[in-house]
Amino acid sequence: MKFRKNQPENEDDDPWWKPTTPQYYDPYYGGDHKNNERGGVNAVALGLGLGIPLGVIACALAVFIFFWCRKRRRQNRNPFPVPFAKKGNDYETQLDSPAYSIHDPWLLDRNNLEINYSKKLGSGAFCNVFKGKINGEAPVSTIHPGQRTQQLRDCPVAVKMLPSFADDAARSDFMQEINFMKSLAYHPHLVSMLGFVADRKSPYLLVEFCEHGDLLHMIRNRKQEIIDGPAVSLDGLKIKDLLMFSWQISNGLEYLNNIGCIHRDIAARNVLVDSSNTCKIGDFGLCRLTDSLLYTARGGRLPLKWMAPESLSSYEYSFKSDVWSYGVLLWELFSLGEVPYAEVQTTELLTTHRSGKRLLKPEYCPDEIYDVMRSCWQELPDDRPAFQQTCSILAQMLEKATENYGYLIPKHFNNQTRDPSEQCDNV
Ligand SMILES: *[C@@H]1O[C@H](CO)[C@@H](O)[C@H](O)[C@H]1NC(C)=O
Ligand SMILES: *[C@@H]1O[C@H](CO)[C@@H](O)[C@H](O)[C@H]1NC(C)=O
Predict the structure, then answer these.
(1) Is 283 among the annotated ligand-binding positions?
(2) Angle value at C-alpha 242, between 237 and 246, nearest 5 degrees
(3) Residue 191 falls inside a structural domain
(4) Which of 48, 229, 251, 253 has its CA 20 to 30 A from that of 372?
(5) Does residue 326 form part of some domain?
(6) Could you tell me if 197 and 323 lie in one domain?
(7) What is the pLDDT of residues 376-408, one digit of tens each?
(8) What is the pLDDT of residues 213-269, one digit of tens each?
(9) Is residue 262 included in any domain, yes or no?
(10) pLDDT at 180
(11) Is 269 assigned to a binding site?
């Protein structure tokens, strides 16, 4: 700051600042030309000897100060200074700084957001999600224009916020989640960020509103529809839909892996379903972008039952540990919303995995899907498939699947007349 104030004065007033002033270079400076020839030469030597190095140093200094000041101004403009997890008071002052609100293209004016606090969409240990509505254009429309089908003006949103008692770790995770979501391109199978609103305590994150809520609750609520299957209702949710969900999630995860992201919290509760029954991966709270193929974390809140053995034993995460978790998600899906390892103590999980025991095939799960799960639960990470592979396996299954996919023939056979050729495809 001190430098910035002084600099202009130096430039204008200080004589040594101007190395090209004639006094240093005029050989006749300082006296009569004829009588002072030697003196003239000395003046040149002095001029060159002192003036040029001083000038060069001064220039370098000026350039340095200029860039230093500019960098500081840039840093001040960053709404989320990097070392964010600080004591409560620091945190509030940081957000109070005016630089926070003005320059971010993702920022929505609080006045353009309505929050319905009586419509809670979800809550976790450290966050609440309410339904809201954006009045006017959502900020994302200027950032990724023309890439999507959903409405971005006067549209419903999910508003994620931290409760006032949230601890520093939760706040820091939340910041990281917001910054991560900003960096994502639009993808149909990822929940996308629409903007954020600045608030004194912590910002509100605005994401796509997904009408059917999270996949786990949706499956649990509509379990009977799935069990009944096409024999009872043609509009109900079917096993073929679960197959479609599996593919969509796999496709979203393939994208995440391609951009170098390890999700670390893949579970049915973290997948949202929109009005057209499209699954979107949400909750990037534990997501980490990584340059190396392995990420080592410590502590924090961990989804133990979804974690691969290497994550449980040594906190190691990789794309392949995400694949393990994806296998558990498939199991949740095809068990129609059961809790995995319901009988296993969390302290026993690792020994269970190491002894080769795996979750059993759920009643309504087709064999070929269970094969995919089992491949995801290979002890050695390298033996597990990549998402690219699970994606293409599931796509092939989808291609072959009929409306009756996954249903046993005798169960509902007698109640409906069907094309006989279709029954042969049943698993
Ligand atoms: C807020 O949500 C409640 C509960 O769903 C609903 O009854 C009410 O109409 C909503 N209010 C507004 C203003 O949308
Ligand atoms: C089959 O149809 C009968 C009556 O036609 C009905 O009572 C029964 O619940 C149906 N079974 C199934 C599994 O839908």
Answers:
(1) yes
(2) 155
(3) yes
(4) 229
(5) yes
(6) no
(7) 999 999 999 999 999 999 999 999 998 888 887
(8) 899 999 999 999 999 888 888 889 999 999 999 999 999 999 999 998 888 889 999
(9) yes
(10) 86
(11) yes
